[in-house]
Design a protein that fits this description.
The complex is a heterotrimer. Chain A is an alpha/beta fold. Chain A contains 7 helices and 13 strands. Chain A has one domain: 3-Layer(aba) Sandwich (Rossmann fold). In chain A, strand 7 and strand 8 form a beta hairpin. Chain A is globular. Chain B is elongated, with a radius of gyration of 22 Å. Chain B has 2 domains: 167 residues, 3-Layer(aba) Sandwich (Rossmann fold), CATH 3.40.50.620; 123 residues, Rossmann fold (3-Layer(aba) Sandwich). In chain B, the strands form 3 sheets. A 9-stranded mixed sheet of chain B has the order 9-8-7-10-6-1-4-5-11, with helices on both faces. Chain B has a 5-stranded parallel sheet with strand order 14-13-15-16-17. Chain C is an alpha/beta fold. In chain C, the strands form 2 sheets. Chain C has a 5-stranded parallel sheet. Chain C has a 4-stranded parallel sheet with strand order 7-6-8-9, sandwiched between helices. The longest helix of chain C has 20 residues. The radius of gyration of chain C is 21 Å and the shape is globular. Classes of the chains: A alpha/beta, B alpha/beta, C alpha/beta. The structure holds flavin-adenine dinucleotide and iron/sulfur cluster (2 copies).
Chain lengths: 255, 319, 395
Amino acid sequence: MDVIVCVKKVPDTAEADVSVDAGGREINKERLTFAINEWDNYAVEEAIRLKEEDEGTVTVVTVGGKDKEDILRRSLAMGADKAIRVDMEDPEDSFVLANVLCTLIKDQKFDLVFFGAQSGDFNSGVTGAMVARMLGISHAAMVNGVEVLDGSIKASRELEGGLNEIYEIKLPALFTIQTGINEPRYVSISGIRKARKKPLDVMTPEDVGVTEVKPMLSLEKMYLPPPGKIAEIIGGSPEEAAAKLASLLKEKGAF
Amino acid sequence: MTVYILAEHRRGELMDVTFESISAARRLNDEVVAILLGTDLADHAEKVAKYADKVLVVEDERIENNTEAYTQVIGEIIKKDKPKVFLMGNTSMGMDIAPALAIDLDSPIATDVVGISEEGGRIKVNRSVYNGKVLSDLVLREAETSVIAIRSGEFSAADLEEKNGEITKVDSPLKETIENKKFLEFVEPVAGAVDITQADVLISVGRGIKDKDNLPMAEELADAVGGVVSCSRPVVDYDWLPKDRQVGTSGKTVKPKFYLAFGISGAFQHVAGMKGATMIVAINKDIKAPIFSVAQYGIVDDLLKVMPALTEKIKELKS
Amino acid sequence: MMEVEEGNFDEAYDVYACMQCGKCTGSCAVSLRSDLNIRELMRIAILNKNEDLEKHEEIWDCTSCGICTVRCPRDLKPAEVIIGMRSSLVEGGTIPVTVRDALESVGTNNNPWGRPKSKRAEWLEDLDVKVKNISEGEEAEYLLYIGCTASYDPRIQSVSRAAINVLTKLGVDFGILGEEEPCCGSEPRMMGETGLFEMLVEDNLTLFDEFGISKIITLSPHAYNTFVNDYPECAKRLKEDDVEIPDIELEVKHYTQFLEELIDDGRLDGEMMNEFSGTVIYHDPCYLGKRNNIFEPPRKILNIIPGARCIEFDRREDRSLCCEGGGGRMWAEGTGTGERNAIIRVNDANQDGANVIAVACPFCLSTLEDAHVTAGYEETMRVMDIFEILDEVLK
Ligand SMILES: Cc1cc2nc3c(=O)[nH]c(=O)nc-3n(C[C@H](O)[C@H](O)[C@H](O)COP(=O)(O)OP(=O)(O)OC[C@H]3O[C@@H](n4cnc5c(N)ncnc54)[C@H](O)[C@@H]3O)c2cc1C
Ligand code: SF4
Ligand code: SF4
């Protein structure tokens, strides 16, 4: 099985204080730390497991500047065989990005393409399925289990409420991988050092043959939601409070 | 302007997000048309028609439970009717269908949308990005049809206006049976095997639960909401629950959609394991407990009273 | 497979000299409550080079207290053998998830707690006194090295603030590194991430050199131990590999040693303090006691506090019962069942009539604080760092 995994480097904003820059179009990134998108890490691990079980290759791909290479090196250290970086500014528009990736992938040899189900920065979750459509191959989103059959894959898709939906999908195919599909291995520093010898190709958009396409979305502004740090206390007797909480949970879709 | 929405249903049940989609669509226009695909649709059609201006029903068993067939059929309908917007839930189904549909239709798409409006003929959406810390306003590029997937729970369907729209049967535009992507079955989460990292709802109990004998109360609540019971470390130390239920730096890191902390003070090691939850509710009798500074909602009261009451209310709301 | 960076496992640790006497296991901090049997692991290191270490979950139970190394009659280093075994697991990538996350966090956030680097100095916010920040160009004689746990854990942050108050009152010329403070690497090393540790040594020595830091006071015995014992050795090894490392001599003291000197110089005495009321029992941390033979300084400080009645544990000094906080155990529960050592410890303290347990290590504070609540002493006993006691009594 030859698998291509598309990965992205994202800022860790789970806990950091996030502010919007003066232009109102971007967040201030100087004090943030960056790492491989969590979902992508599971995707890389899954691809490597498929290779280890059977045989084949794993190629990791990212679009972005040289500062994005560390996530490729890390993936190589995890067990990927080859990495490709398309040397251009990471397009924020999913459609523009999908167009670049599709152009690149269509000339590669592959059975499977993996994406993370979404990225931790914009949470759009569209790039993978778009690329599949552009390539004209089958896809499944939110995949949390993969079993290789002859010429096809049995894939489990995570639905709401813990239910799974099982599909048989013919190869070649593209999956967007959900966290929890596996337990990604640790990548040691010495492992990263040793993987320096593995090939990392840098391609310009011209090498890839990228054509210009129109972005789907234009950003008007970014802003911080009104502050509301401390918990909103639900008052009343235990029964009243419980009733309010129950309605709130229902409204938010807990059950 | 017309908005088409997808009525999502699974295993005989119509999903709430259908009505939320109608609610979102109402913010844009005067006509909402719902698309209902699959088999055994009569009941669903009636329920949806109550609030939609029109329901298009395509009965075709080749579509049932097949997201690829869904995509193709919706695509055909949209190409023919050319509504300004196609809208559905950003559910697991939506994540499979919507982006593919956007490519098929050469449409712009916005997903996980929490606010929507029209400005000068163009669709403007509000999305929350960077872990909910930043909001962004985006305008979709000009197009015949735009595709929108809304976040569940954001557009309340509580006050929908009754329309009692007309139900129209449409011949299935699906050209051929989908062979490349075959639906096989639904698989229930394995009963008994509890994985707190995979649950959408966690009922988490701490030392405040006081006694092992009170745990069935938590299990009952978890059953009522379809969640799982997790806990803080002392509960494991006292042997009230097994180790694999422990949340925290030396237990498990969880990111459920709902985390209900009962009698948990919110120690550093515990919070580190659950702060990624989408919505945190703390039930604690001590208003000064640090858990309230990570929770969005709180109840300051005796959990032994709140918990059974909550179970009852949820059961009521469900029936 | 057991491999170490260079050469073979058995040679690197000289395991053949082991006579399987079992003194290590006999003294081991956790062998009574876990599956960890260090003598058995020594045997595996000698005989079964192809042993599947992933099966041996108990390798993560070791608290790296070091007592086995102290007791070994053949002068072997069983505690290091465990680190070696962990190293080969780390290289293989299959390690407990919590340990994985902690190590990854050191790589990205420079702390094992998964907290953002930009919040490392948040504990300073509630402080009244002004502290010099060496990373912002201010000059000071000493660097007060706070460490990751005392920077992020709200309970332990109180020790950092106490330290600032006390050192300021005593007129010490010191500064901190604020957000720029790095992880010392002690815990990553103990968890077997040798490569990461080497990287930290290289980066940190460069950083210290850049800011002209040569004298360091640490809050944590773990940071102290690694600066004093591990850094020089690692720097030497790196230099041999032609890594460029600044030639700096660090003078590092644990804060109890530093305060002892102030006492000896007459700059700190009981006159400067208000009355403290309580029976205080001192818990020796492994990284001061067993690993570095520092027993006197903390006792000397406690003894000058007026009103503090100082008593001793039966198991003290090099026989002190390990609290199970070290060796990466903050991020690994271990296979242990039954009573935690920390619970035994607070029960002992209670039986001995203490109502204050004095500690000098952030990990001990964390484990004993937690245990004293679990054991039901929340109302009757306090667990305090010596800095916190001083902050309370200093006029
Ligand atoms: C090395 C180490 C690792 C650790 N790892 C973890 C970990 O992974 N996970 C973890 O959880 N902890 C961990 N801890 C323990 C942690 O420090 C805390 O001690 C623990 O989280 C506290 O659990 P708790 O909140 O349930 O109990 P407490 O802190 O005792 O809080 C109980 C809460 O219940 C409330 N309460 C009591 N009765 C009622 C009532 N009737 N109704 C409503 N509220 C009530 C109280 O107001 C209080 O806030 C670790 C500690 C150490 C030292
Ligand atoms: S270092 Fe301590 S815990 Fe680890 S094996 Fe030796 S005695 Fe046991
Ligand atoms: S104490 Fe030393 S010689 Fe004895 S069994 Fe342990 S390692 Fe071997």
